[in-house]
Amino acid sequence: MIGDRIVLTLAATAVIVVAGWAYLRLGDRALAALPHGAYRRLAPWLFAGPAVAMVLLALAVPAVITVGWSLVDDGDGGSGGFAGFANYAQTLSDEVTRVALRNTVLWVVLLPSLAVLVGLVIAVLSERVRYGALIKAALFLPIAISAVAAGVIWSFMYDYQPPGAAQTGTLNAVVTALGGEPVAWIVDTATNNYALIGATLWTQAGFAMVIFDAALRSVPGELLEAARLDGASEWAAFRHVTLPFLMPTVVVVATTMTVVALKAFDIVYVMTNGNYGTDVLSTVMYRALFTAKDNGLAGAVATILMLTVVPIMIANVRQFRRETGAA
Amino acid sequence: MATVTFDKATRIYPGTDKPAVDALDLAIEDGEFLVLVGPSGCGKSTSLRMLAGLEEVDGGAIRIGDRDVTHMPPKDRDIAMVFQNYALYPHMTVADNMGFALKIAGVSKDEIRRRVGDAAKLLDLTEYLDRKPKALSGGQRQRVAMGRAIVREPQVFLMDEPLSNLDAKLRVSTRTQIASLQRRLGITTVYVTHDQVEAMTMGDRVAVLNAGLLQQVDSPLGLYDKPSNVFVAGFIGSPAMNIATFDVKDGRATLGNADVAIPASIAAKVAEEGSDTVVLGFRPESLTPASSEETGGIPVLVDVVEELGSDAYVYGRPAGPAAEEQADRLRSDQIIARVEPRNAPQKGEKINFTVRQGSEHFFSVKTGERLEP
Does domain A86-326 match CATH 1.10.3720.10? Predict the structure, then answer.
């Protein structure tokens, strides 16, 4: 049985390789036979073709279909016909969506700024202590943990027992040990959104730290020496020399984290399932799609989400271009 | 403005036994232009960085004026440094680069603008003040680095090979500009270079270092005329001095067919240290083609002739039956002689050179130290 599978895998790989080779080779031949000049114009399309096809198939086409669905009257009692912007009107007038929008904004504001702050501070400070590598490794490890597992871990961290009972949650154990009252972190609406963002931060800060760590290494030592000779204190040298040097990196990390915040789903789904006012746009979309089975409504929420991500992605790509172009 | 004193200053890099800078004693006068020169790895840059506070001092002390700065952080030393790669802040304009130290010091904006403007005028940078370093040529960047130092009006200027990234022609003109600027400002300057021509042309005095040890401090001509040991003799001067170990016998120094008369006092000193050989050095310009009736001389087989217009240099190797032994005992790669450019020999020719009387340099075989006649 397993032998069959191996043979099948090898055969499939061989077919893909041969087909790919044949595509390029024959395509190249065919283009070469064309009149002069055509080759130069068409060759890039030949080589980029498969990748363009993949992007179109896996990204662009579904996006268009999603936008299309958002205009359809679907779901329970839906006519299946054109609905205009009714789905948008419906979801935007819904209190649940409005809470989710508000929370998504909270995520988008807090997660990038905290990730930049924590990542940068740890990257800078760990350069200056003896066990810096150990600290960096500890902060980096959560990257390897799936979001669902992280959600479970932090559910334990945030666990709540009534006052007087033994606190099984790490955080409440600490709070009560210090003489405080236990807090229902993920139920209490005053804390639960921050608790979820905190858990996500734990999975993402390591990424930010690694990026900043690499960027810090690219700051020429001579520049810092020059700043010190110019009379700058350590803080002034950091603020006037290191930080401006890191600005492109800050932008990259912040936009990446913004996208993570906009896409936030798994941690919320695992820890609260959007209850207690912790919904974000993607959990609303998920329920519209799989619980209410309303493709139109889900499409509308997805489109709203997509429209908020696009400008940030454009900013990110521009920054990336500027960086690679300047080098 | 101030004096700078290295008092047995020592730097031992962690993990090494041999000091990078070994008990450096050096007193630099107020307003002086002192050049630290030596081959790479000799400790000259380390010495400069110790003075800047960028390198720790493991022993001894460093003083600027009366202040002991041995363990003072760089920011409190009132020193400006020009780095080899200029170390301009890439995100700041030329004006901001030059005014950065003043801004940190809390000088008012008007005062900064005035002083930056003055320095820019002095360095011909006025039209570039709003540019970023990236948009400047190498020479302009070098001038901005100079400007950043000048604006400070520090007690001491430090320059770490500031010309090594410029092309040959610009290097020569900038060299003169820096020297004249320093003279005009009168600020004590320590300048590091590996290029002995730079050292000779710029410094009031030149300190030669080798393997972490100070070899000699003197005026450029002093170093050239009276090198205190074999290392300085071989390092200073371009083309380099011819140096070889000669046998001493009957008031003459001989090496194979080469034969040079030596003063009786030198012969006596060689005998005194119980040796029968001496290191003899003579500069290319001290050699003259011998007329046939002279006795002695140094037979040379011409390999290459360099025609420079004003001068011509003959590069050759020892000729004669004992040529191999001679080549072994020659410290330099070849024998170099300056000759009349309009009357230069052809390659392959054999010439007998004599050393102009009184222009020889003698060094002890045992210690390498100079022997004075």
Answer: yes
Search chain A and give the residue with CA nearest B84.
A222
CATH assignment of the domain containing B325: 2.40.50.140
Q: For A194-238, how does the pLDDT look when each residue is reduced to its tens digit (9 = 90+)?
A: 999 999 999 999 999 999 999 999 899 999 999 999 999 999 999
Q: Please say whether the beta carbons of B165 and B118 come within 8 A.
A: no
In 3D, which of A215, A125, A218 has the Cα closest to residue A134?
A: A125
Q: Give how far Cα A189 sits from Cα of A98, A157, A186, A275, B113, Å.
A: 15, 17, 8, 10, 55
- Whole-number Å distance between alpha carbons of B41 and B21: 10
Q: DSSP readout, A183-235?
A: --TTTSTTTHHHHHHHHHHHHHHHHHHHHHHHHHHTS-HHHHHHHHHTT--HH
Q: pLDDT of B151-165, one tens digit each?
A: 988 999 999 999 988
Return the closest-CA partner of residue B33 out of B229, B223, B152, B184: B184
DSSP state of B24: E
Yes or no: say if A209 and A203 are a contact pair by the CB < 8 Å rule: no
* pTM for this predicted structure: 0.78
Q: What is the largest CA-CA distance in chain B?
A: 79
User: In whole angstroms, what is the distance from residue A278 CA to residue B15 CA?
Assistant: 57
B59-64/B361-363 β-pairing: unpaired
Highest mean pLDDT among A33-47, A159-173, B140-154, B342-356: B140-154
In terms of domains, do B200 and B268 share one? no
Q: Does B75 touch chain A (CB under 8 A)?
A: yes
Q: How far is B70 from chain A (nearest CA, A)?
A: 15
- The verdict on B264 and B357 lying in the same domain is yes
- Co-location of B161 and B307 in the same domain: no
- Give the domain extent around B131: 4-234
User: Could you give the number of structural domains in chain B?
Assistant: 2
A241 in contact with chain B, both atoms CB, cutoff 8 A: yes
Domain boundary among B234, B267, B282: B234
